[in-house]
Design goal:
By secondary structure, the chain is an alpha/beta fold. It contains seven helices and seven strands. A five-stranded parallel sheet has the order 2-3-1-6-7, sandwiched between helices. It has a two-stranded antiparallel sheet with strand order 4-5.
Length: 195
């Protein structure tokens, strides 16, 4: 069975940049892996259900629909895994109109059965700067204090996920200009897992 590594971080931390670097490094090192964005898979499923949405509008949908699509996405990712290592790009939680909603609730964790959880982090000020410069996304405007809360909440949620799954949690820093180094650290963890 394929190994699954879940890579999370709050919006603007640079997860996707780190994972793009990981793809390049893995290719150079001839390490076979498949990086899958959980939100993209959810969006594909919503499209198949007749709902064409911008990816930032998913969190504004009915929670029951989101839960259903989240479960279908987890199943689809596991089906895509086959014998390759799968790196899942996702969030520990999502801000919705009704409150903070787990990005990795128990039913998703059970389907994914991760071998490792990674939190990508940087400073709240850096995250805000990255969010402001990303014109491709429709981000909520929040303060530096709210970003610090989100980082702390992600850590707490990761701790709960580790308790449920029994898998380790690792924090990787993605400070300015350090995406390649963060990806190198992640690649070493992948090698340590025997992938």
């Amino acid at each position: 069975m394929a190994k699954v590594i879940v890579v999370t971080g709050i919006a603007g931390v640079g997860k996707t940049t780190v994972l793009n670097e990981l793809r390049n490094l893995a290719s150079e090192a001839k390490v076979r892996l498949n990086v899958v964005n959980f939100g993209t898979v959810m969006n594909e499923i919503l499209r198949d259900l007749g709902k064409e949405l911008h990816r930032d509008d998913m969190r504004r949908q009915d929670i029951d629909l989101q839960r259903k699509v989240q479960d279908l996405a987890a199943s689809e990712i596991v089906n895509r895994a086959q014998e390759h290592l799968v790196v899942v790009d996702t969030h520990m939680f999502i801000r919705t109109a009704t409150g903070l909603w787990a990005g990795l609730p128990n039913h998703v964790l059970q389907r994914l059965s991760p071998n490792l959880l990674i939190l990508v982090e940087t400073s709240p000020a850096e995250i805000l700067g990255r969010r402001r410069s990303d014109r491709s996304r429709e981000r909520d405007q929040i303060t530096e204090e709210e970003v610090a809360f989100d980082i702390a909440w992600s850590r707490s949620t990761a701790s709960a996920c580790a308790l449920v799954t029994g898998c380790p949690v690792r924090i990787i820093r993605n400070d300015p200009g350090m995406a390649r180094q963060a990806a190198q650290e992640l690649l070493q963890l992948i090698r340590d897992l025997g992938a």
